[in-house]
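[INFO] parsing input record for Dehydrogenase
[DEBUG] input buffer:
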Amino acid sequence: MDIDNSVVAITGAGSGIGRALAESFAAAGARLVLGDVDDAGLAATADRLAATGAAVTALHADASSADDIAAMTAEPVDVFVANAGVMGAPGLGTEADWDRILDVNLRAHVRAARVLMPQWQARGRGHFVAVASAAGLLTQIGAAGYAVSKHAAVGFAEWLAVTYGDDGIGVTCVCPMGVDTALLSTILDSTDPAVRLGADSVVGAGAVLSAHDVAEQTVAAVRDGRFLVLPHTEVRDMLAGKVADHDRWIAGMRRFQRSLRG
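[DEBUG] output buffer:
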């Protein structure tokens, strides 16, 4: 994928990984269409990039809104980054909790793909980036909705790659563990024991990386046409252990959970 002078649309670009992705794609020469529901954060990202000379269009956009996705893709885009995500409720959650997390963490990807795949098939090129999580390959202690929605996001990205790869369309799926973002800070600062359990599992599993590290690896993967981005290299070994002996892996996760509770 030639990123220079391409058009890259990014959801959730007002902070965290989304902002870092915007900066990294801009540095690679892309023109940007940025969306977020956080107007102040989005404006800060756009102003920062405009000051460097980057071409930026910023739109108030809810990733779970089909109309807002259509607005972000009104101009033909070459790369779409489905980055917006929510942590959701701890435990099993309510019906409304499940509707919200699936709407943002999964259905937003589906809505974007419905718009983009026919366009990209006609052009013979395009690249879809799904920012998922290592929780989509392993699991997330404390938060069923997050674990399940991220598994679904990974599965959907795999399906896109298989279904549209022969049409010249690339897919990249990004699966980090802990990243230094406002989302992680929020759950680390929570007074809810169930939320803190999930937060402690994230920081206890490995190093907390910068959003810039994740963004740089993602841009490189898009450029090279690679599917899976594992910013925490140990996730590959964790996943191999899970596949090799699922019961042993579950037992190990239960031990890890007990240690966090203890």
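[INFO] The longest helix spans residues 95-123.
[INFO] shutting down worker
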